[in-house]
């Protein structure tokens, strides 16, 4: 079993199905030339501008400059740092990305950008995910931060609009990377993203968490405010951004929790960046941000966040039980039930899954769930009447397993419209309300097929068209240049012939750059890397 296969085998099934094979043989000689060009430019430029661990980290994580990295080789190196990596295809759902990261697994997009997008790619690619994220992991403290910020993003509550934005971003990236996409298709994809962004009713916890991640792990600077260094993966993997970010055109701000309230635009270079004092500073900001989230605060704040999100989340009760479902209605109490909790009853829409410590106790319940707040005991079986200090009175018949029938109730003497059958939970407090199901693996087993992530037909076809867009004659020229480079036999006459033949493809500057370097007309781009 290869190192990558061992990594995949350790993943739970609900994460494993997002993984794809790297298929190293599918990378073309032009793909390899794209990698060489970017890594040569980046290593030459970033030697004295990136965090000091950057160049050392490239070696420590198995990332060379001459060829696209093999994930097997990366996993051999990463394992020594307590990390691993898997290949994925393009954008994956945020909850999957953050859960993988919390587990210490880098999700690396298997594709590589086209030479048309060599300065900056609209889609995740192997340059960004490997040469951007992996090197700084060589710093132990930063590696711990990546896991911690991944866990926070995983726990944050996302809204239905967040899902619409994710789908629109993924669609736009696919369309922009499709060489056959028309101007109309690109405009439509852009308009779809704008409409999805405009649909937001509020800024969710998940959106704020993604902003914190963006301004630190993706676009973070570190050190002295006047002379910072680069550590963010988005800056380390983009030639244009790496050259632009340290200029006076970009405003440098001290990193603080306010960055979570600062929006960003993925389609343009950022007008401002945040500078961390050091890697310990990242933990200070993360802790301050984390303290504002529902999974840390629970109570009314968490219930209201889950209510307006309209998504599947889970409530953690005082006895440790976790109730997964969609919060659809809240009833206020006559008096506070507990500090930070003035709700008498929360209604959740099914399916409902009960778990403890992230492990489900039984199969999902298809009906509604009611969580009543206050002191009381629900009998396992038989008739019951509960009168809670919140002013809530519930009556019905318990049939076992928390399920009740013939349910009726009043709040401060007013009759309530309650489901005739439901699953009923009692709790004195609500310590936490967190994003997504408490047991993602069980939820996926029961419902994964309904919302399974697959590479859609449009995305698969776009990848195929991208591969076919390279003219066969141009592909052969790249193949020969790659062969000459690897053999070490320069063949001046043949290089002259290739240079002349390249004039048939005037827009393909990369081939001419490769030939010019081999002919000694320009300095090797990788000379700095070997200094």
From TrEMBL:
Residues 1-349 form the Biopterin-dependent aromatic amino acid hydroxylase family profile domain. One of its GO terms (molecular function) is iron ion binding. Keywords: Iron, Metal-binding, Monooxygenase, Oxidoreductase. Fe cation binds at residues 128, 133, 218. The keyword Iron applies. InterPro entries: ArAA_hydroxylase, ArAA_hydroxylase_sf, Aro-AA_hydroxylase_C_sf, Aromatic-AA_hydroxylase_C. GO terms for biological process: aromatic amino acid metabolic process. Its cofactor is Fe(2+). PANTHER family: AROMATIC AMINO ACID HYDROXYLASE (PTHR11473), PHENYLALANINE-4-HYDROXYLASE (PTHR11473:SF24). Belongs to the biopterin-dependent aromatic amino acid hydroxylase family. This is Aromatic amino acid hydroxylase.
